[in-house]
Amino acid sequence: MSQSNHVVVHSLDGKIQKGTTGDFFPNRPLFHLLSSEGGKAVEITCSRVKAVFFVKDPAGDREREDKRGFLAAPGENAKGMKIAVRFVDGELVCGYTMAYSPGREGFFVVPADSASNNIRIYVVSAAAAEIGSGPGADALVQKHLTASRSK
Questions:
Q1: What is the pLDDT of residue 129?
Q2: Minimal CB count within 10 Å: which of 47, 49, 54, 108?
Q3: Same domain, yes or no: 101 and 41
């Protein structure tokens, strides 16, 4: 197995699994996850996944509140163009991508919040309710934040 990455796998059914993987590749239908709790590696089928979060610390920081939106960030930088993803479960992810193309199975996002525990996120396109790129990313974030405030 190659180098292991700490990941948090969010499934479409709401299940969250933490562990490491050394065989995740975006063009493959499955990968293996060695749970943080030990035991045998389990097979993860990508079509059942919402997103794979590659993280700095598997435990995370429960006290930290993630910043939402882009915080006056540029439309494009060395990490790619702005992108916002609203998942079918309502979660919003904001960041930059070099690889988004409508119709692809998925793509990587580097979080806009550089202090986030997430290093990068692999988004499964089928799990997204809406995707906005470039200026559309800002519009999607504003729509989402406005809707959240009115609840």
A1: 96
A2: 47
A3: no
Residue 60 lies in a domain: no
**Total residue count of the chain as it appears in this document:** 151
Contacts 24+ apart (CB under 8 A), 96-104: 97/133, 100/131, 100/133, 102/131
Query: Is 104 in the same domain as 51?
Result: no
The position carrying tokens 């700490």 is 6
pTM confidence score: 0.88
47 with 88, same domain?
Answer: no
CATH number for the domain spanning 24: value is 2.30.30.100
Q: Write out the two tokens for 111.
A: 């979080």
Asked if residue 95 is part of any domain, the answer here is yes
80 shares its domain with 144:
yes
Task: Please give the chain's pLDDT, 151 residues, in tens.
Answer: 457 899 999 999 999 999 999 999 998 999 999 998 878 999 999 999 999 999 998 887 777 766 666 655 555 566 789 999 999 999 999 999 998 888 899 999 999 888 889 999 999 999 999 999 988 998 999 888 787 777 6
139: enclosing H helix or E strand: helix 135-149
Domain of 37? 5-55
